[in-house]
């Protein structure tokens, strides 16, 4: 179990500086840092300064001094950062100074002085995502904790039951991210489809209108922001059907990340999975009938205690039937403190590895075939990076860090964050190659 790491932010200056502070806070929060409103409880303090007029400079220098006196570990960013000599003359102890809108540098500096509390068992954001989220996409965390009690998981004991963030607060954050240049929001929480259950779907306010704290209403409101909205960590509850038309209409991305973990009813029962009694294949069929372009991503665990050859084979049969697009799979390994550790029927390591290999072989063929079927199609791509040979982006079917990439030749004139239309020329089992239309 890791100790949480806490950061205080002092934000001075104009609305633009506030957007930077929000951006920094969102990034740090999605990486698992706690944000605290006092110097005393913070492990480190960020001061976002203003250098517009003399009185603002003085106020900023005073704020840095106060943070140093009260806390001691201080990173300075914002407009005053351009006057590094002046800051250092007064406050030589600051850890690092960066300029305005240098939010990546600030987050990097935090990583250096207070490494992220990454925990592979509890983190929502993939470890690669921790390095830095580029400016054109961002994680939007809508809740903390989880009210389920999956037997292999320790998140509820670490983070407590589900606590949804008020819908107005979530929407304001989303809107600010869009204003700061974000083109894609990745909606995350431990159980995104349960959003608002703890608040009994309380009606909040956003943009002067009432808005329910509920999965569908949030997805619809986010869909009005005009950027890509991607939903992660959804469970196959019946009410998830409601958001599929939003995908078919193009309001949110036709993409669902549903961590099924297994398909055999007995194993799902032992895992105590949410929605384990749902008829998942029927649910998938309904989703695809409403939105044929839907991309389904999932993760699975093989070799869970009690998994027999027959239950493993029923998982393979499910894969064949479900035809999922993107899949991750892990051999079960016990997590300290998880209830599943006491289950009988531990699967020997070599059988776990053998099942993992059989699982991956089966799914690789399915994923490859599904990607091949996209050759010749026209798709929208969001550009992640421009390199010497061309541009690299992602289609609507690909989440950053975990899914595939689209490589586009002769596209060095593009910029990160551009949306372009391409025609797919080639595909392997993971990535695709395309040309601009
Ligand atoms: S749904 Fe299950 S696996 Fe996911 S956080 Fe909650 S308890 Fe853990």
From TrEMBL:
[4Fe-4S] cluster 1 binds at residues 14, 50, 79. Residues 5-115 form the MTTase N-terminal domain. One of its GO terms (biological process) is tRNA modification. It is an enzyme of class 2 (transferase). PROSITE patterns: MTTASE_N, MTTASE_RADICAL, RADICAL_SAM, TRAM. [4Fe-4S] cluster 2 binds at residues 146, 150, 153. Its EC number is 2.8.4.4. Keywords: 4Fe-4S, Cytoplasm, Iron, Iron-sulfur, Metal-binding, Ribonucleoprotein, Ribosomal protein, S-adenosyl-L-methionine, Transferase. Binds 2 [4Fe-4S] clusters. One cluster is coordinated with 3 cysteines and an exchangeable S-adenosyl-L-methionine. GO terms for cellular component: cytosol; ribosome. It catalyses: L-aspartate(89)-[ribosomal protein uS12]-hydrogen + (sulfur carrier)-SH + AH2 + 2 S-adenosyl-L-methionine = 3-methylsulfanyl-L-aspartate(89)-[ribosomal protein uS12]-hydrogen + (sulfur carrier)-H + 5'-deoxyadenosine + L-methionine + A + S-adenosyl-L-homocysteine + 2 H(+). Gene3D superfamilies: Methylthiotransferase, N-terminal domain, Nucleic acid-binding proteins, tm_1862 like domain. Residues 372-437 form the TRAM domain. The keyword Transcription does not apply. Residues 132-369 form the Radical SAM core domain. The keyword ATP-binding does not apply. It is found in: Cytoplasm. GO terms for molecular function: 4 iron, 4 sulfur cluster binding; aspartic acid methylthiotransferase activity; metal ion binding; protein methylthiotransferase activity. Its cofactor is [4Fe-4S] cluster. Belongs to the methylthiotransferase family. RimO subfamily. Catalyzes the methylthiolation of an aspartic acid residue of ribosomal protein uS12. This is Ribosomal protein uS12 methylthiotransferase RimO. It comes from Candidatus Methylospira mobilis. The gene is rimO.
